[in-house]
Design goal:
Elements (H helix, E strand, L loop, with lengths): L13 E5 L3 H12 L3 E5 L5 H8 L4 E3 L13 E4 L4 H14 L2 E4 L12 E5 L2 E5 L6 H14 L2 H20 L3 H13 L2 H6 L3 H13 L15 H6 L16 E5 L10 H7 L4 E4 L5 H4 L7 E4 L9 H17 L4 E5 L9 H10 L4 E4 L4 H8 L13 E5 L11 H4 L4 E5 L5 H10 L7 E6 L7 E6 L3 H8 L5 E6 L21 E4 L2
Parallel strand pairs: 1-2, 1-4, 2-3, 4-5, 8-11, 8-12, 9-10, 9-11, 13-14, 16-18
Antiparallel strand pairs: 6-7, 14-17, 15-16, 15-17
Helix pairs in contact: 12-13
């Protein structure tokens, strides 16, 4: 069954609620907030309904339902547990042309009540066509996290400016386009900061771009470059003549839920998303539908990385110079073996503004997801992080020092694991030191091998692990034994505990 969604104006209209329990009480409160004149029919109303009746806010008929109770009603709600009563109310409603909702009784409904989220003048209704009110309630909670006081204040501001904008932009199609530009712009960022005057100035700027009409809002800012300096980061550079900002955003270690709130906010506003191989597809899907998506991931152990990086740098510069907001989405943290600094240098040399949004690094998050803390007060007061690319062949790392570090974390070290363990053993590390490899950390496919430094490479080879994988060496690996194997991950339990010391 498909319902037609509408919002009803109940101001001054009569609504009848059959039933006086907790559910009926909530329905009454919702009707009152919408301005309805409410009559409740129930032999045993809740204490609050009785108080509302005593205060004259509702009419209360302390008796069971009987035919004729819907006379003069515009809308009715049957909030009883008795389907026989609901059927009688339904029959009268159909006869009298009264809209009826029978709570949890879809067969006797001419309309259903959705889960509602209200924030100021914004109302969002979620319906599952009566199939799952619990799911509707949970979806409403998600909506509530997206729509808050800032959106309500923006709505109030736009309502205040609506007549003025209609006068300034009389052409309806142009005005419609303008409204979308305003709500898609960074005006909301000014509102979130409490800078309503700044929001007005930003709207004034957008209106002035429609045509040569004289502005009748707040005074306009000065030069183009001066105006740009007053905009939040997302909009600096979109003013004519200036390149847009490139955001280097850390996407986290794999689980899409581990991106920062700031990173997700920028991603949802991007014109262009340039992303790596390890970024979750569901995270890329958070970008606007019209955003350009450019995959620049390198295959593991692939050649030509320097040339590919030059191409990525050129791509970022090109899109920014077109005035497009670019999000460079990188796995983990942009500055932890992510070549983020190289991209910043290229952007700076090209005169393109950039901003770095840190991410959750795999060096800490992946061991934690496997139940391994990189530090522990009793066994490890320090840790070091190296890249596996430095471990294969000629290396500039101080292996003697690394062999003494309480906890060593190696990123991208799977292919060089035999060399890593051999170098550590050669430089004095204890062969019985606990060690682990975590593959696909924080993802549902996470797998972990726990062994000793001397046996780790062989154990991993036996299991056929594939990148991405993180290596951890140190006594902290033993801490994992104290934790439940079923709760080893921060976000997902590991699917398979391959072996354990």
């Amino acid at each position: 069954m498909t319902f037609y969604p509408v919002f009803l104006d109940l101001r001054g209209r009569r609504a009848v609620v059959i039933g006086g329990g907790a559910v009926a009480e909530q329905k009454v409160l919702g009707l009152l907030s919408a301005g309805a004149h409410v009559t409740v029919v129930s032999p045993e109303p809740t204490l609050r309904l009785a108080h509302l009746a005593t205060g004259g806010e509702i009419e209360l008929r302390r008796r069971p339902y009987r035919s004729g109770d819907l006379a003069g009603a515009w809308l009715a709600i049957a909030g009883t547990d008795d389907r026989a009563v609901n059927a009688r109310v339904w029959a009268e409603a159909e006869r009298e042309g009264v809209l009826l909702n029978a709570v949890d009784d879809l067969d006797h409904c001419s309309f259903i009540a959705p889960a509602i989220h209200r924030e100021g003048d914004i109302t969002v209704a979620v319906s599952t066509s009566g199939k799952s009110p619990a799911l509707a309630a949970r979806l409403r909670q998600r909506v509530a996290r997206l729509i808050g006081p800032a959106e309500a204040r923006l709505c109030a501001l736009l309502g205040e400016l609506r007549p003025e904008l209609a006068a300034r932009v009389p052409d309806p199609p142009a005005r419609t386009t303008l409204w979308y530009r305003i709500v898609d712009s960074d005006v909301i960022e000014f509102v979130r900061r409490g800078d309503i005057e700044g929001a007005r100035r930003r709207i004034d700027e957008l209106v002035s771009e429609v045509g040569p009409l004289e502005s009748r809002l707040k005074p306009r800012l000065g030069s183009t470059r001066k105006r740009a300096q007053h905009l939040p980061l997302q909009r600096q550079g979109r003013v004519a003549g200036l390149p847009a900002t490139v955001y280097l955003v850390g996407a986290g270690p794999g689980d899409p839920g581990l991106i920062t709130a700031k990173g997700l906010e920028l991603l949802r506003s991007a014109d262009v998303v340039v992303y790596d191989r390890l970024v979750a597809p569901s995270l890329v899907a958070e970008a606007p539908p019209k955003a350009e998506r450019v995959f620049v991931g390198k295959a593991p152990h692939g050649g030509g990385a320097d040339r590919a990086q030059d191409e990525i740098n050129a791509l970022l510069v090109d899109r920014a110079r077109r005035g497009l907001m670019v999000v460079r989405l990188k796995g983990g943290d942009p500055f932890v073996f992510g070549r983020g600094a190289e991209e910043c240098e290229a952007l700076q040399a090209a005169g393109v503004p950039f901003h770095v949004v840190p991410g959750v690094t795999s060096a800490i998050a992946v061991p934690a997801a496997a139940g391994i803390p990189v530090t522990h007060r009793r066994v490890a007061s320090a840790f070091a992080v190296v890249t596996g690319h430095e471990c294969d062949g000629v290396s500039s790392l101080d292996w003697e020092a690394l062999a003494r570090v309480p906890t060593l974390v190696v990123l991208m070290g799977l292919s060089a694991l035999p060399e890593i363990t051999a170098r550590l053993l050669e430089h004095g590390a204890d062969p019985d030191t606990p060690a682990a490899v975590i593959a696909s950390g924080t993802l549902p496919t996470q797998r972990t091998v726990v062994a000793t430094l001397a046996t780790l490479a062989d154990r991993v080879a036996e299991e056929g692990f594939e990148p991405p994988a993180t290596v951890v060496v140190g006594e902290v690996v033993r801490v994992r034994e104290l934790l439940s194997a079923e709760a080893t991950g921060l976000t997902h339990p590991a699917r398979r505990l391959v072996s354990q010391v």
